[in-house]
Amino acid sequence: MSELKPPTPTPGDTYKGWLFKWTNYIKGYQRRWFVLSNGLLSYYRTQAEMGHTCRGTINLATANITVEDSCNFVISNGGAQTYHLKASSEVERQRWITALELAKAKAVHMQAESDESGDDCPEVPPSSGQGGGCRNSEIQSTLRTLTSKVEDLSTCNDLIVKHGSALQRSLSELEGLRAVGDMGEKVRQVTERATLFRITSNAMINACRDFLSLAQSHSKRWQKALQTERDQKIRLEETLEQLAKQHNHLERAFRGATVLPPLFSNPTLGTKGGASVKGDASDEDDDNEFFDAIEDPAEFITVPADPKYHRRSGSNISGLSSETGLDDQSFDELSLASNPESPQPLELEPVRQRRTRIPDKPNYYLNLWSIMKNCIGKELSKIPMPVQNLFLYHFALFKVNFNEPLSMLQRLSEDLEYCELLDKAAKCHNSLEQMCYVAAFTVSSYSTTVHRTGKPFNPLLGETFELDRLGECGYRSLCEQVSHHPPAAAHHAFSEKGWTLRQEIALASKFRGKYLSIMPLGSIQCIFEKSNNHYSWKKVTTTVHNIIVGKLWIDQSGEIDVVNHKTGDRCHLKFAPYSYFSRDVPRKVTGVVTDKDGKAHYVLSGTWDEKMEFSRIMQSSKGENGTEGKQRTVYQTLKAKEIWKKNPLPEGAESMYYFSMLALTLNEPEEGVAPTDSRRRPDQRLMEEGHWDEANAEKQRLEEKQRSTRREREREAVKAVSIPEEAAHPDNYQALWFEKTDDPVSGETMHVYKGGYWEAKDQGDWHMCPDIF
């Protein structure tokens, strides 16, 4: 477990080894590789990460080291960072404590010396403009002087060696002399060479003295400069860590919990409670150990199936519901091949030519701070918003305009852009195949949000929107705003091709100063007429990032369970939150289709802004444990096939709010629609035409009219003696085309279409509609 170290490591040496670091109450202690060097304690997930990824660093010069028990100890620098550590044994803990105390003492001593020295050296970072250039020039000059002194020392050394050898030879010759006459000459030579040796030695001593003096005079200044660089590095690392933690807070805002539950452990989308954390909240709780938490490992792995599954005879095709399949046929062909009663596709001619452009959006700049300071921490649906204003429902924008000329009811109707997926699902005989299409339809509804950073108009109470595509696509859709506080809309769509879609969506939104979170409430249901399969699911959380600084961008994250209440089939979809540190593709979505017994049949994968693919599972097995100790399932699958792909945006979409082809037609004027239809809303029409001032004035008029109508409705309810007091509440509005009922299949209470709208349209009788515009 831990590397063997001497009991008292040298304080200047690097000390390394494995320790267990506390993360949170879910994960507990996790094994990490720690490195103690130069008064800094750093840790890594593995030894291989030492060259590129440091998970955290604490400066021992300002840290407190506390022993808790035989194996546990705590290192804290006063609140900003706290490490709860555990060694494998008491001996190992004592070795670490000794090394840490020695390193701390040395770091404190060096810091004190650095503070006392170098007063003549201004603390100017090397990169600070002209001051950095002067420092670099001074250092280069000193280095040149020291190099010159070293060269002098080298020359003196050569001369000492030369003259010393000559002197040695002379002394040897002197010892061998016999004649007195030769003695005088040799003594003279020895005296001369001894003099040269003394002169050279003195020169060597002087050069050494000069070098030592020069080195001493600059050493303290260099220590001060080095410490300044170290402090700046630590400050930059701490700043980067804080920014990374803030980013992780944004990512975790969707999930509402420190750790996501395992696959299928929570079949309903509810709130996930966070886990309390031991120690300083800013350390492990804030980042769950930050770098550890963001790498959310996949809970299953897909590998190509055994070739034997691809060699089956084509005569054995019974759709993908059988145990075999062909990897060279598309999903549509295999699905529809199993249904001999499926009619041939009809070539529908458009009944009318619809528009392909709208006026370009204007470019207005607004002062955000005057808006945001009144929004922080509030429920956004209760904040009055002018046309140019901010932060409602799904989206926001940092500058220019904050709205788009569509209402929330029209945005809700955009879910039907890929209705052909439901058309194909209605033709499937096998419920598992049908589930794949319904899951793909669920993901496709988010494809329009990737660039749509404009806020849709908040519908007025009683406002409606119809989308009649019976002649073109075979469906009709109706939306109505059924509640104002909280805002809620009901939606009903039926198709001649055998499916009905209904949903009731209410939105809870919070602006926290750095990001905007939108939590959709309510559910969506889809019923297929032929099979009587009844599906239901909920929406994931939408988050708008970079509200204050940077380019605005939108992310979808969370989990969806698409449930077939008739058969018990289930598709668990996971929308992975975007992470700067993840190696996966952005906006990734994965899912597994299982039957009522929990057996997996299909794997879905792709991105919510581009396309989805499916793979039929031929065999599954339990694989090796992942990085966090979780056992992952390995699915052997056939070759992946595309089941849905996003339609390209029209030309010039960036100047038309990034509307899709369907969105461009939603606010197009039509004859015969109800007087409460969103197309008749005057402020929305003025905004589309670019008349912002008039649109803002008109919006204020409509909102004041709605408030007056609400007060009048309250007074009338109070006057009625037979009505209980609670029923007189102004929010107890009775929708015109929808009624609240309990669904016997899903057990949910929601507004369901009660009929009458299309009959009223055919007769042109709208006398029952309120005057809201």
UniProtKB/TrEMBL annotation:
Segments of skewed composition (Polar residues): 314-324
Domain PH: 12-105
Gene3D superfamilies for the chain: 2.40.160.120, Pleckstrin-homology domain (PH domain)/Phosphotyrosine-binding domain (PTB)
Positions in coiled-coil regions: 226-253
Keyword Hydrolase included in the entry's annotation: no
GO molecular function: sterol binding
Spans annotated as Disordered: 111-137, 265-285, 304-348, 669-719
UniProt feature, compositional bias: Acidic residues: 113-122
GO BP term, example: lipid transport
Compositional bias annotation for Basic and acidic residues: 677-718
Name of the protein in question: Oxysterol-binding protein
Species per Swiss-Prot/TrEMBL record: Menidia menidia (Atlantic silverside)
